[in-house]
Amino acid sequence: MSEKTSDKMSDENKPQKPFSRRNFIQISAMTAATLALPGCSRNEKPVLSTLTGDFDPLRTYPYRGWEDFYRKIWTWDKVVRSTHSANCTGSCSWKVYVRNGVMVREEQAADYPRINADLPDYNPRGCQKGGCFTEYVYSPQRLRYPLIRTGERGEGKWRRATWDEALTMVAEKLLDNIYNHGPDTNSFFSVIPAMSPVSFCAGSRLAHYIGGVFLSFYDWYCDLPPGEPLTWGVQTESCECADWFNSKYIVLWGSNISQTRIPDAHFAWEARYNGAKIVCISPDYNSSSIHADLYFRINPGTDGILALGVAKYLTDHDLIDAPYVKEQTDLPLLVSISTKRFLRESDVKNGGKEDIFYVWDAKQQKAVPVLGSMGSDKKTIQLEGTDPELTGTFKVQLADGKTAEVTTVYELLKKELANYPLDKVAARTGLPAHEIEQFAKELGTRKPAMIIHGAGTNHWFHNDLTNRSFILLVALTGNVGKNGGGFNHYVGQERLWPEQGFFKLAFPETRKKQRFQNTTLWSYVHSTNKDPHLYNGKPIEWYIQESVKNGWMPLWPKNGKKPRAMVIWRANYLNQAKGNEILESSLWKDLDLIVDINYRMDTTALYSDVVLPAASYYEKVDINSTDCHSYIHPFGKACEPLFESKTDWDIFRALAAKIADVATKKGFKPFHDDAFDWNRDFTQLERDWTGKGAIQSDEQAVNFILGNAEETKGMTYAQLQEKPRRFVATDPESWNSDVEEGVAYTPFKHQVEKKRPWRTLTGRQQFYIDHPWYIDLGEQLPTFKEPVAEKFPLYWNTPHGRWSIHSTWRDHRAMLRLQRGGPIVYMNPEDARKRGLQDNDWVRIHNDIGHCVCRLQILPGEKPGRVTMYHGWEKYLGFKEGGWQSLTYIKIKPTQLIGKYGHVNFRLNYWGPTGNNRDIKVEVEKAKV
Ligand code: SF4
User: Fold this and answer.
1) Mean pLDDT across the chain, nearest whole number?
2) I need a labelling partner for 389 at 20 to 30 A (CA). Which of 464, 504, 689, 847 fits?
3) Ligand 1: which atom is nearest the Cα of residue 128?
């Protein structure tokens, strides 16, 4: 023991100072230092001769500033509430922290009001992409200035332009097209208004006032479930995710919620504590399958036959809710056996209506009309004392004196279901028969039961049939229109709650005066895309011509003209386009002007002519809503738009002003638009666009939407900045349930509880579509059809991934680090072995359409016979050749081209052919690199 140590020890015998935070830290530090000294055990006294007096850094060290360095990371000047507009469906409220004018970080806001104490709440919401958006905003791909292309499209050669120069170029071209080729040669593409309606409306207002063609997106992306408009007469209706907790049986069908619904997946997992069982049906064993009580590793493209096999089991074993089925569905309605058409009032009465239908009343033993159909005067579906037969064959006297043999839709359905015995279904799906039986029994007995439906099944060619088969299951069991039940489809952030306010802002002179266009059809017709398959012996071109000729689907521009200009904002058309390379070499080439408004250089921007830099999600004022919850919350301006960027609102306002300026300087007379008898005076465009000056700013636009919608009556933008608000009501025009205090939202309570007719021709959930094309193609009832035949061996599966929202965040440094840093294709080990492929090999994926070259990852969870690449990779992000869309082409399903059939009519994003892509097949081989 040294002398100094001895001194120190004697100091310890002096009277102690009162215990303070400082001496506690000193003692702790010394103790820690003691224990940390090499070779120093607890029993040995260390040599501490240097840790005294002026050498104690905690007491006397002169430079203390560094101690606060890390604390200052967490300081800020202001906090602004905002969110993300990427079509994730999340709609999560975030706080953005700003210091010295720089957005330094974000944090989940976690103040969604609770629905009731028995339901898990929505807090906190978010995902890892949202958690790193501040970094994305300042990343190299950020667009800073207006750019005008100097090289070939896609070559990446640009020059910086002034706003004035770029806007003048665009304004002159749009006007030139209108006066020389017609307003329908200007096309506008933007997606998903729910994710930022003010940004959407900025451009749609311009399209509206200059007569441009507004292109659809929800059907084009194949997010629209066409079975819903067919069966229910709605676009998409789903419960909010808190309602998952109310379910006792949750079937995840083609939906990997752990990966694609990150903020909401917990509601399903927590439902298990509430007694729910989880079934997961997916070809790959994935991050949602691990939570399942029953997992079906189904063969790709066979979901429809499984559903119909289960429906057969339910009907054979009397597991249907007969009173519900009689009242709420068309299954008891009578159909003529010879014509396969519904029995109509016009058949049995001279001068009778085409849209009144009949059931066979067991009490009266005769056919009686049912209430609530489109032709019925009574707006109720109550049976009013009748007891419809579900089965049987009957004779009915017709108006012409003849007798017709009729039967029920249910009877026909039973005949159809006879095609799906358990052993056949088991063989085709690759699933054990006894497990299918278990699934059917449980679905028929555990109530309420719901299907959570995703793109995994919706992106197939026969998506309408599959949707209808799934809906059949939850309708037969009486689960639709009840909390915890139903068919709930979550693909795309399609639910714009304050819809009427939005429509007034988006298309001010009403939607009737707007050129709308289904994008799948537009992209097919205006490109060299060619579907080689025949449908009932006819090419798809025949069906397209008939549909357009009959006025079922619009096709712009008219008279064989080609589109000449395309303005794209809030979207990545080229990246997401099926038949990407076909489009690039035809439709894209034919366009004289492509304008992209964007905050980052994505594939579409790269292949454009003029790029206008837009504000990011944290630099603008807007609002956000989703079908996943019943709240509204805002985007806020954490800082002014970076560099020379502007908000979408300001960009389109400036473009409107520039068009007015050019029209004035060039002395353009008003353009008479014959289609709408509309005299368009472009010299007044800025005045029209701003609603005669009433809506100048984006905040005014938000308040306009809020103030013109039942759902948000009384709310203001300033209030939403304080915290998210739950919607106060639903507009009965567009909704099928009320927002109820303390209750999670679920649709169709108006029909089930209040007996309001369904929005269909028959006024019921309509499983029988007696349109001639459906009858000719054998699809009048839900049926199973095999995927479209393709000659290659492996299905090309491109689902939504965990590390991006479509193409957004695909190029984010942190997200790339969580994968292998570039595009990869996943393959089952057995498929890889057969092809002599090793993990991380460069592989060439190819078919008759095209090819791409990327790395391989071997994944036991992948299903043999299928390869997967999570979608959205930009073309410039690590492919040696091609891209993920190089292998796809557009295939239009004939039955999705019909119109003028009761409730089935073209409507933007509501009814029209979907841009499916899951039937595509490929081969994979080692690449020569
Ligand atoms: S990206 Fe979507 S899911 Fe993720 S935090 Fe943002 S809003 Fe939520």
Assistant:
1) 93
2) 464
3) 4
